[in-house]
Structure formats: C-alpha cells, structure tokens
Amino acid sequence: MNFKAVIFDLDGTLIDSMGIWLSVDKEFLTKRNIPHPKKLFNDMNTGNSFMEVAEYFKKKFKLTESIEEIMNQWIQMAVARYKKNTKLKPGAFKLLQYLKEHQIKLGIGTSNSRYLAEIVLSSNNVLEYFDTIVDGQDVMKGKPFPDIFLKVASNLNIVPEYCIVIQDILDGIKAAKNAGMTAFAIYDKFAKSEEKEIQQMADFYAKNFYEIIEKIKQLN
Questions:
Q1: Beta strands 182-186 and 204-206: pairing type?
Q2: Which fold has domain 5-17+86-219?
Q3: Is 144 helix (H, G, I), strand (E, B) or coil?
Q4: Which of 41, 94, 190, 204 fits a 20 to 30 Å CA distance from 58?
Q5: To 5 degrees, how large is the angle CA 16–CA 19–CA 23?
Q6: d(CA 126, CA 122)
Q7: pLDDT (tens digit, 0 to 9) for every residue of the chain, 220 residues total?
C-alpha cells in the first residue's frame, strides 16, 4: 500500500501513560470519600472522549461540579505526572524520525485534552514532529466512531485510504477501520483483556514500535 500520513493515538500508544489515569481517578474519588470501583469503566467505551468520561463520572457518582470543572480538576491533577513521569514508548522516537525523514505527515488523534497532549509531547521533545493534534472536544463522538481520525486526516489534507492509524485499544482500532484507514495495533498491558479481538481486527499487530518500523519500511 501507499500511505501519506500516520495518525497516532496518545495514551497507551505513543506514551506509556494509562497507569497515570488510574491514579488520577482514584485520587479524584478518594478526595470525595467515594470508593473506587474495581470495574469502573465496564459500562462505557474505552475510547470515549475526555468530556464523555467527565459526563459519565458526574452521572455515575452524582457529582455537583460541572463537566468543565471536573475536566479542569483532572487536568491539574495530571499535569505534574505528565511532565515528570511520562515517556515515549521504546522505539517511538525512532519511528517518528523515520517518518519525518520520508516526508510522511503526522497527526495525533486523542481522547485526552490537547493541553495535556502538548505538555507530554513537548517534554519528550517531539511536539514539532506533529502537523496537527485533534482531541475529543474537537469532534461530536469519541472512539469507536471515526470522527476523530477523519478530522485529523482532514487537517492533514490526506484522504483516509492513505492514512495509517496506530492504536492500543479495541475502540481505537474500530474507529480507524470505521474511518476507512489502515489500523496498526500496538501492545499495551492495560489493553491485555482485548488483545485477541485487537489482533483479529487490526491490519497489523505489533508488540512494540520496532516491529512497526520494520513493517512500515516494507510498505514505503
């Protein structure tokens, strides 16, 4: 296949950060004397946008804060963690370098907030590699709907069939396929329960970015 753009999910894909959100959720609920359910997100999509998760929390835990206040509190709780503790996954920087050297356009499609995305990309010295960042508040529906990836492709001025999406979770793979894009899956321990389904649905499954680099070299 010929491809002209690669679109990355952020958390759990490009960066190793899913554990951060588990700690933020726990701290947020503990401050309100609310027990942290073991299966907190079982009744919602894992690819929901930042706002959709805030709406879910407000309804589930009968919170008095507004959706915007909940999101702002999460962001403030996550900022320090993102600046100090969040690194690119092994091989990710090498892949970004390779793609840039070969004039491939790069985008981010994340359910996270743009503010946090820019913080973590900047702290890892790769913000300038990306031509566009689209977050969950830029679209009407989160993953598994294709909106976020279609928006990235539109910003890059690349038609979906020439885009590769790299994702770690099943809803993200579904979103990529629903967008008519090629879906590359990368292993993340927090998506272990979905691994078999991800392998079946993805066009390519990799344990790490080094395997993705080799696959892309074959396609380029």
A1: parallel
A2: Rossmann fold (3.40.50)
A3: coil
A4: 190
A5: 145
A6: 6
A7: 689 999 999 999 999 886 787 888 888 999 999 988 877 766 666 667 778 888 989 998 999 999 999 989 998 888 888 887 789 999 999 999 999 999 999 999 998 889 999 999 999 999 999 999 999 889 988 899 999 999 999 999 999 999 999 999 999 999 999 999 999 999 998 888 899 999 999 999 999 999 999 999 998 7
Region for residue 165 given its phi and psi (left: phi exceeds 0; alpha: psi -120 to 50; beta: otherwise): beta
Domains of the chain, residue spans? 5-17+86-219, 18-85
CA distances from 8 to 33, 66, 209 (A): 36, 30, 12
Residue 97: CA count within 13 A, CB half-sphere = 7
113 CB-near residues (< 8 Å, 6+ apart): 50, 71, 75, 135, 136, 137
Check if the beta carbon of residue 88 is closer than 8 Å to that of residue 11.
no
